[in-house]
Specification:
Chain A: It comes from Microvirga aerophila. Chain A: Belongs to the UPF0065 (bug) family. The complex is a heterodimer. Chain A has 11 helices and 11 strands. In chain A, strands 2-1-3-10-4-11 form a 6-stranded mixed β-sheet, with helices on both faces. A 3-stranded antiparallel β-sheet of chain A has the order 8-5-9. Classes of the chains: A alpha/beta, B mainly alpha.
Amino acid sequence: MTSFTRRGFIASASTVFAGSLVGLKASFAQSTYPSRPITLICPWGAGGGTDATARIIAQVLEQKLGQPVNVVNRTGGNGVVGHTAISTAPPDGYTIGLLTVEIAMMHWQGMTELTPRSYTPLSLMNVDAPAIQVKADSPYKNIKELADAIKAAPPGKLKASGTGQGGIWHLALVGWLQSLGLPPNHVAWVPSNGAAPGMQDLAAGGIDIVPCSLPEARPMIDAGRAKSLAILASERNPQFPNVPTLDEQMGPHKSVGVWRGIAGPKGLPADIQDKLTAALKEVYASKEYTDFMSGRGFGIKWAERAEFGQFMDESDRQMGEAMKAAGLAKT
Amino acid sequence: MNELIEAFRLVLAPDVLIAILLSSIYGLVIGSLPGLSATMATALLVPVTFYLSPIAAVASIIAASAMAIFSGDIPGCLLRIPGTPASAAYTDEAYAMTRKGQAEVALGAGLWFSALGGIAGTISLIVMAPILAELALNFSTFEYFWLAFLGLMCATLVARSSPVKAIASMLLGLLVACIGMENPGGVPRFTFGVPELLGGVEAIPVLVGVFAVSEVIRALVSPEPPPLPRRKFGSILAGQLALTRKYWRQMTRGNIVGIIIGVLPGAGADMAAWVSYAMSKRFSKEPEKFGTGHPEGLVEAGASNNASLASGWVPSLLFGIPGDTITAIAIGVLYMKGLNPGPTLFTERASSMYALYIIFILANILMIPLGIVMIRVASTVLRAPRATVLPVILVCCAVGAFATGNNLFAIVLVAIFGAIGYVMENNGYPVAAMVLGIVMGTMVEQSFVTSLIKSDGSLLPFFERPVSAILAAMTISALLWPVFIWLWKRIRHRPQEQAL
């Protein structure tokens, strides 16, 4: 008791306290990521399909990581603003984002310097292949007949729509026309604000063909106004088992499709990548995620880190080819 | 019959009723804040719907959007700052009524005819959904072109200033609509290398700028106006039955126009309000009273924009084609909740459909008591000192613009358009006409260019297709009418002059 002075007690206590603080700080940096809320940037507006996907991923990711994951919509500049925000965030794992296929397209048009290589790829979450729709009462029974009709028609006679000029479905059509040995403008492209107005114009008789994903075409197909001739993918879509693949009917064809994946800014530390990818894999396998995606009719596909990087490189290459062929690329 | 009982059971579940009540209050508040539109209110609800049952999820969207469209009238009437683009057409009129000391009549008309319009729209949805959907499907880009063109011509009708200045404002709006790369060619225009401009200039920051910010600037440079005489805020619904009896023709016309415009994909409550207000003035027996605080136009436009809201669900539910920006978001929620749009929704899931109808009617009835409370609360703003109200409005503007996309650039746009709006108003150029140009510009261009692509450059289909021909005749006769009147007057007066 005699050696126990007040000053000595305070000194020793503060040493212990300081020591424990240092230890805490060190462990914060290494093993306890994430220790605060994470921001998930969505480059598209609230209420759309991409926004919904980001929100369901965030919701399940939150359970897996034990920290809130907040979706922040950074819109503007046709996706440039949000994609830039993801790439310029500090690489500490607290800001990640949802990349969409546009990142493989925008730089070809000279809209931005960003490419898929400007990010640390974490995981691919979703892929939707294009399908070819025609009016329900059109004379074409299958994709072969349509292909023959396209070849026989004079250039520009047939019209297609489903997205803006140089949009993803336009490029899918260009890719298919090229594989048929036809020039990219053999079927004239009518720009529209998305697949739904395109499908409406198809039913109204304004155009002949709509290339878009099957979930986008579903309401019109169900209403008996349109039919889907083929899906441009190597496998049938399990939700639309009656729609044959192009490969089955006309031989293999590599087509562009839409995809969404999670990535962080460049230079994300490897241990954080490990942690996030593991959690995202659990999200991908979760019932909430698969139920949500099948409910919306979205296709799911998994690829992680380097594999996702390769996937994006391949997508980038295909987009570049199609855009150059269509005369839409600037670089 | 069983399905109807089942539908009532679905709607009367406690979670659905709570969802309707809470989202109604939420919609009222969001809609009354300048810069936060009904679309925004709906978009912000989406994450919440993840946790709700399917019927509760859709109910919350229906209730919130209907309330937000009505409550956009409140700041327009009290402060001359429209809360949503759908209120912009008649903001001046409503504000003029407030200055005359008739704020309660103006707001009451907004509330009463919004609710009736919403119910009329719902009835059209119940009775005529398949017919209306067929009509919508017959609209191709050729018809949309004429429709958008007609919409643009409303600029001259709505404005109180000289038609030349109104057209100049509208053309300035069209020029602003050219910015960005959301044009048929997909080519960036007037972006000056600023990536934020690639997506174009959206209507919301412009609306907030030209109405709210310019109003604040005007207040800064002008002396405090004499305060409105202090008096009790009168009964809100008192005069409405008389108005209904007096203007039932206008109300019905507003409902019909709203229903038709709502059904057409891509044209929503904003356009319905503009067209109806212009029509009301055109066919009115006393058009000279418009703009001076005359309720006739308010009745027709208020009836119209809420009717369009309900009928906008027709193409969405039947074909998955959004009727407006609100249903575009709602379709996503329908999918998520397993209520996939399509004709099967009407046959196999009829009880869910009936439940939606009941919710529509319920929401529009609930609008009246909740709206009265909202108006009472909001009217205190008239008594608050200007020095406290204006900074709060400015903060609301910044927050509202930023919230649309978490993008600081939107706030810069608000500031720029605030300055533009102030200069324009000071020189007698109506800012509402510019907003109309921005809202309609993309549609005019898109429908014109895509039509020409489809017709291989021929103009003939613009006049050949039956519906298109009717719309073309309406547009051209409206254009030539003033010339005709002028000629007729000259011809009639000349012989008299010679006789003298």
